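DATA SHEET
Item: assembly model
Revision: 1
Owner: S.N.
Input lines:
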Amino acid sequence: MENQIDLTVDGGRRTLSVDTRTTLLDALRETLGVTSPKKGCDHGQCGACTVLLDGRRVTSCLTFAVAQDGSEVVTADGVHDGDDLHPVQEALVEHDGFQCGYCTPGQVCSAIGMLDEAKAGWPSHVTEDLRAGIELDEEEIRERMSGNLCRCGAYTGIVAALAEVARGETGRGTDEEARA
Amino acid sequence: MNPFDYERASDARGAVAAVAARPDAQFLGGGTNLVDHMKLGVAQPGMLVDVTRLPFDSVEARPEGGVRVGGMMRNSELAADPLIREWYPVLAQALLAGASGQLRNLATTGGNLLQRTRCPYFQDLTTPCNKREPGSGCSALHGWNRDHAVLGGSSECVAVHPSDLAVALTALDAVVRLQSPGHDRGLPVHSLYKLPEDDPSHDTVLEHGELITAVDLPEASPHTRSAYRKVRDRASFAFALSSVAAVVEVADGVVQSARIALGGVATVPWRASRAEEVLRGAPATEETFRAAADAELEAAEPLRHNEFKVALTRNTIVAVLRDLAAAEEGSG
Amino acid sequence: MTGVGSADSVGTAVRRLDGPLKVTGNARYAAEQPETEPLYAHLIQSTVARGRVSSIETAEAEAVEGVAGVLTRHNAPALASTEDPEMRVLQSDEVAYRGQIVAVVLAGSAHVATQAANLVRVEYAESEHDVELPDGDSSRLVDAGIDSDVDTGGVDEAWESAQARVDVTCTTPLEHNNPMEPHATVATWADGQLTLHDSTQGVHATRSAVEALFGLEHVRVISPYVGGGFGSKGLPHAPLVAAGLAAMAFPGRAVKVTVTRQQMFTLVGHRPATVQRLRLAADHSGRLVSLSHDIAVSASRVKDYVEQAGAPSGTMYASPQRRIRHRMAELDLPAPTWMRAPGECPGMFGLEVAVDELAEQCGMDPIDFRIRNEPETDPSSGLPFSSRNLLRCLQVGAERFGWGERSWRRGRGQHGIGVASAAFPAFQIPGSRARIVFTGERYRVEIGAADIGTGTWTALAQIAADALEVPLDDVDLRIGDTALPKASLAGGSSGLASWGGTVTEAAREFRDEHGKDPVDGAETTSKMPRNPDAGQYSMHAFGAQFAEVRVDADTGEIRVPRMLGVFAAGRIVNPRTARSQLVGGMIMGVSMALHEHSALDPRFGHVVNHDFAGYHIASNADVGDVEATWVDEHDPHVNSVGVKGIGEVGIVGAAPAIANAAYAATGVRVRDLPLTLDSFLR
């Protein structure tokens, strides 16, 4: 049962015809050839397929493309400007926060979504005081990134990278220290 | 996966009518469970009515007290809502203990409540399962049942209800608002679910076509404290081996009121009424908490691989009550 | 050519050269090849564990619009070789394990293939099956035929009369590699050539296997980016055969076979289960007098594979009396395979838990106990070690981790630290070749090597740059394609040692032939030089693992907030990627220690928890502060590049360090993996 839908993918408007059974992940990978989001489990259990859907991180394997008609999708390939990587991507390369690279685009999208969630003050499972603000320390990052499994075990690099990005976004002092 | 029709609902009445009209139609919420099950072949709807864009996506204070949570509200937004964080910490904690950030961004309140068991035999079409295929037998009863129920099971089914949210709502005495093909109605959360008994195929008492549009939380007393503790194998992103939701009021060293629900150990979100009875009016001591837990778990019927859940749940109940009582003392 | 003369790349922490491609998602993995109208395969698996297919009805499936066909044993092309039962796909009606491929549905889209698969009717004549590894006393265990098994004859007597002794049984469960990228193959049969985009640890190894299986001469395997393997992608498995058969049945069309996560639990190998009885005895001074390691492993009737868990007991400790014995139970299980540090990893769990227990019996610090029992030569071969810096690792680690006398004594609290040793053989696989071509501006270095996340793209380029004495930028490395010179596979932590030696030799010969100012197009192909010291020395990487464990007093939840691994692994080519590999191994060790367990249901013969929700691997929140470091080690014997390999030694010893720490924390000795909270509940 084919349906015509519109998606904005990494900034470009795409019109495509999809079977109702086609997940957003398969529409991206198989129909549009956008293979940045990966298929690691196809059941929402690994996070490799994470994309930003209308600005929020979601597992693209668990939503039907037809249900996202009109939505905006951003993958890890849509957040850099040519060779100019997104700060999250740059930090992951610097801290070697990946090995085989298969979970990595999902980690990137998840991290970007996670940083926005923290900025909006959303608490997490490890947030001590639900009424207070969020300090994105390593424990918070670990918990918030736990929906993205990495079999290579690059977690320490991922956490170091994201802690650096979080500091850069919140603590202006860090930048000044770096310049001084 | 079999082909299916898809319709995006524009109003609740129409959505209910559309599903009610077709026996093989289902509502589509966040999809985190339904899409999963469709891929596995566990669910084979011929039509999906997408209700995610219906205007039930906010938390509102009710004039008569308490708050109304929209049925389409995403788990992540609900957990982050200031009213929930301030007045219903047990609920925020339960949501945040569930799944992952990217799943909570998809999952809805109504969908979460109606998610089905994660029993691996239920999810595997090649093994018998009474819940999936009535009369085929229960593979878990004498199989790998470490994750299964010690409370509320039957010889037909010992699958655990997986929701964290439902456990917190059970302890909060929340009421589910339903838009129905017939008369709209409200249902206490604990009455929503049915024990497997001799028919595990239906998890709830909902009629075909009934839609959860909201969940009403009763007014939170400024004197009560609440908490959700989830115990699991992994530190994150795992279903509960055991979880405890507690809403408790302690004054002058005495338990004034206690509402407790258990997750991960029962076939339904489990209201621990026996424990509550023991607690009510009793001194807020470790002995009382232990007696309450034991009273509740007396009925436990562990299976081959999950006997540990009895001690685990007892200890977790005691730990949660101890922490809440200590917090009470600290603030007093 | 101004760059010639520099040789300072090796040893520097160069960022991954493939980093930008990976963080943007532009590195293309096997299933991501753009193909015109490919066929998608759905693998139908047997639902009985033993027996035969008595009938199979495909007409209804074939009638579904978009279905190209259904392959079964009736219409599948015949294989040229059916020697390997694991690879005998669709060649007979025999079913040897639950989940075996019995049909392949091919359609223009994946959901049509899946939909049609539900319409294929398969009937079985079922036989009795057995998938359970019995305990060590069972008569169902047969000798596993391991050459290195040893019995000095006096083990029992020495044990009986010793002052301190332990007799313990440790178990490790069935485990699955589960790389994040599921195994995948895109196969195309055209003009007498089979082309495979395959997720593999070795393109040439895969080509050889496929050529033999299909009786072909022209097979090309392409695999520049691989989403992890950890052994399961070392050799091809049944899904690749299915892809090849389907491609030959539909000439000219690309056939995509992507193994589902659930299928990863049957079709691409696993680490066998072990039951290990260890009887260790020491004299009054804490010196081992007897070491017996009796191992029972699960084996499969479809694959000749034994998990050699006794290996560490051959290398680690001096003991006058030693017995190492492997027995196996041949079961109706899918084929096992290598999983990160096969043999060493589960074997070191048993050995290092038992050593911890014996040290306690002797009233000794477990590190002192290990120092006391350090062998001068390899106990199994009698050969000198090419280098062995285990004790330095233990000492450096003790200092850095804050090890002290109090820390190893059993406490009544919920917090403790533990230690275990690590070791893994330093292999070098002969037979690789490399070609160097000067292209006018850069040196193209060609070798059919693999990067499965290990960092080959970067580290091998560094070795080539130094060997050519040019800046790293001047090297244009090409790997992952059988169109390139033949290379050994990425397995046994042998990759960089083997390919690095080959590339270094090629660079030397290139300079000999073409000098420092080669003409455009100058080209040299060389093969890996023979190591004159091979067979003269016992060659291993070593390490010391330290773990801190916390156990919740109420719930028994066990967490590992801190780990340190100190390794002696020869020359470290790239500290950045090396650290990642070692830390990654340790984290997989945390996962093994706390989570991993493929639960078999003996009635059905399958792994029940066959997905990532049921089969837990460590999540980010499970991993605390994990640090890996190394001691300087110059090993002149191990190979021409001085590299020992680090892909596997990082996981060895991690689980026993955690188990020993858990004991120190709680006084509860857990000898069965994984360590779950139920063991610590009070």
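QC remark: The mean pLDDT of chain C is 96.
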